[in-house]
Amino acid sequence: MQKENSQELTIKPKQMRVLTRKEANEQSKVQVTVRPWHDYDYEYWASYGIEHKWLHYADIHPISHKIITKKVDNSTRQYIFPADKFAYCFLERKEGNLQLKIYQPYNTKGFKWCSKMDGSVIGLWTKIPQQGEKVIICSSLKDALCISCQLHIPALCLQGEGYSMSTTAIQELKRRYKHIYISFDADSPGIADARKLSAETGFQMVLPDLGSCKDYSDYYKSLTDKSQFQQLKSLFP
């Protein structure tokens, strides 16, 4: 895969930045060491319909290590773990606080996710336009980015299905957008949670036909003819 900018991808070890949540809780703190982007990273995300520029837009960073600092009695202990080959940090900024979530998509040892992100954080909240015709609320960052990139409709994501939205966030979205859609995973839990959130917010629920797939990004990956994904745009008039 062609690189967008070779300078952008070249980060010497001494230049690697440590990203951390500013307000860690009293017991533990999670940090990461950022590494350069590689072609295989871009290929992984491209398989789900997410192009280079959207990764940078969303503040996603590939990482080489996860660092956990814990308070034990009166002492502090630090543990450094090598990250998987495919390992990424999602960053969000809420009220001046930097918060992070670690994603290792192929991890089978129970470390696919590690989060120090407040449950009230709405992914991509600071990235979407200030005003517009429509916005879609998804249950994952990968789905939100797939929709944004492929359908060119702004999308947000909650920290997971089953999460609610604050009254402030609901009113703010109503002020900024004419049409607000909720479209979670197309399985039983996703449908139930979408209905619940729709009832709480008054936002319109959309249930897509994704064949045997349960979410947008997996559906895009499954398509031989990627242009078929564009047909989903009609669900959000």
Describe the structure.
- By secondary structure, the protein is of the alpha/beta class.
- It folds into 2 domains: 110 residues, no CATH class; 104 residues, Dna Topoisomerase Vi A Subunit, Chain: A, domain 2 (3-Layer(aba) Sandwich).
- Helix content is 25%, strand content 28%.
- The strands form 2 sheets. Strands 1, 2, 3, 4, 5, 6 and 7 form a 7-stranded antiparallel beta sheet that branches.
- Helix 4 crosses helix 7.
- The longest helix is centred in the C-terminal third of the chain and has 14 residues.
- It is globular.
- The relative contact order is 0.12.
Distance between the termini: 34 Å
- Main beta sheet: strand number and arrangement? 7 strands, antiparallel
Anisotropy-based shape: globular
DSSP summary: helix tally: 7
SS-derived structural category: alpha/beta
Brief digest:
The protein has 237 residues and is an alpha/beta fold.
List keywords for this structure.
7 helices, 11 strands, globular, four-stranded parallel β-sheet, 28% strand, 237 residues, alpha/beta, Dna Topoisomerase Vi A Subunit, Chain: A, domain 2, disordered N terminus
List the helices and strands and how they pair.
Layout (H helix, E strand, L loop, with lengths): L5 H4 L8 E3 L7 E7 L4 H8 L5 H6 L2 E13 L2 E8 L5 E7 L2 E7 L9 E3 L16 E7 L2 H11 L3 E3 L9 H10 E6 L5 H14 L2 E2 L10 H7 L15
Helix pairs in contact: 4-7
